[in-house]
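Entry for the shared binder. Reason: the reviewer on the internal report wants the predicted structure included alongside the sequence.
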Amino acid sequence: MPAAPTIAAAPEVLRVLVVDDNASLLRFLVSAFSANGCTVTQAATAEQALALIMEQSFDLVISDIKMPGLSGLDLLRAVKGKEPGTPVVLITGNPSVNSAVFGLRHGAYDYLPKPFSIREIQELLARIRTDRRRWDGQVPLPAGLTEELSRRQAGVEVMFRIGDLALKGLETSAFMDEVLGLVGQSIQSDAALVLLRDEQGAFTCSQQGAGPLVTRLLTSLQRSFGELVGAASRETFAVATNGAPLDAIAAVIPGVGHAMGIVCLARETTTGGFLPDERDMLAGYAQTTAVALQ
């Protein structure tokens, strides 16, 4: 008896929101996704799309980046705030953008470079459906973004722990040693130091890491320490290493009316540079440390 023919399962019907201020491209998107097993909702602006995502859920959001008013990146952040597991694909006019870097920086599932074809839309939908089957109806975040979110979550925990340390009544030097240890656990570095200025203008130093690297880092800081501390910037800044194979960043620990010191981290260039979110975390640690010291 001949075997019964195998009937291929129908593709999953996806709820797709497409967003573009270009009317002809919007019509193309609606037609292309509708023809490939999707229920499509359209919006001509990010503002319209925001109203829609507040009312209903979507399995996929496709949006142009550059639009009048709010941008596609603004929409991306809103979608990730409401439904972190919803994949967002951004349409870009720059075909040279590397998709892995793009996803790492903005949290997009992927991007579509203009001009794109129905074939590329079909390939995108195939990946989305495969990921949903693999992950029980969800689409995982890009690997780089998952790592970044994990780092940021750990960074928030470090800030809480710095606050807890302030309640223990430790001497300033002991407190800073503990803070430097927490910072080192959160942001990998080969050398780390904190310089604090007391009321008399004298500086004390807490340090961790390889001695020669710390010495080299301290020497680099000393050349412009007064200027850096006086600036009291809330952002991290690069530290000149005079040709040494180091990537060094620092953040000012502000005080009342003037800066109190600097926290600085360095890596051998063979280890890799500091990522943007790591720089943000270091600035946050400096601000939290300043509050704790007061």
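Summary line for the report: The CA atoms of residues 132 and 138 lie 5 Å apart.
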